[in-house]
Amino acid sequence: MSVLVSGGPHGAWAWAGLRLEPEPAISGSGAHVGLPEAQRRVEAAALEQVWLSQHWRPDGRSFELRYVMPAPGGGISCALLCRMHGADAAAATAAVLALRDSLAPPRHVRAEPISDTGELHSVLVPFGGVPGGLAEVRRRLVWAWLNRRDTDFRLGVAVCPLVGQAVSWEPVWEALARQDAPTVLGVCLEPYAPPPELPAYLRYLAQEYGRLSQAGQSNPIYQQHIAPDPFALRAVPLYQDALRDCSDRTYRMRISLASGHSAPPLHLAELLAATVSPPAALPGGGGAVARAVPVHEAAAAWGNLAGLHQTWLDAAYRQEVPQPLGEREKILAGFVAVSQASAAFRFPYEVPGRPPLFGTARRADVPSPPQAPPSPQDADPAFPTRFPDDRSTPWTG
User: Is residue 204 in some structural domain?
Assistant: First the structure.
């Protein structure tokens, strides 16, 4: 077994992982000879949505699908990483191993535990320091200054849903394979149980926007009517959807890209945003956007990716909203129902007759990913850089 552990005054974090490969097409994936590709893709997406429902446990767990293109010309590798917290190193280790062993992927994916600590570290922390090219894909925020004065707030903000469709991920993987520098794509999910006050707040906003979406009356004596607010008309269905999502199993989600280049891979991030929520599925554009991470947030973004965390990045996540978001709006901007999470959390698959995109154990001519040396991050106790030769910190594996 292999686990990375980092301890601190408030307990310990532990990380583990599974190496993933697409099952050989047809024979082991549940697909049948003659079945159209679109139908195979729909069946695979349905299995993945069931998987997400089954593994929803708001116990502090976090897991991430990590796609890595280690070098130009090499095959893509994929891993399923997981993280748990414990009172000490032993408790965190036991928790993360139990989680890893429970994460058997859908039948169209082959999994094997990552048993080598160096390999686990190279997948989890694929660069020796903070990379220069960082980008995030987020749910689209829409906003407007309200025309109405008969409300307690002037700025309206809402979050667009991801429209989950069984869209092919091959264009994303092909673009990742064409990168001319090492590149990482991570989709991180953390099961989330909304506190009671969040649905109550969303219910209030849905009702308030519902009132503003109708004609109002500015003066009861003169019966002067005011027009419905245009933004309220758009916001009502979005808040009604968010309220329904709160009654379902929800995840906090982060989609991150990191490149060895100094510039963020925005073209890949934009393709990914269009894949997880196609622009044609929603009026006014898709439900996802791509944003570069500014320099002053790069270290925090890298800590999220390397530690499977969900730290808020205001400049990257707020998009163009002119005022800081409240805590409840930040939560709303980052959580998704299972049906939306499955649009982004896509396991690897292969299509018969297509050139292979993934470097697998069945293709011995594909080189293994290079193992990055550890990079100390002592300022962050939740950063997975502790190895058994570091006697000053708890480690087990």
Answer: yes
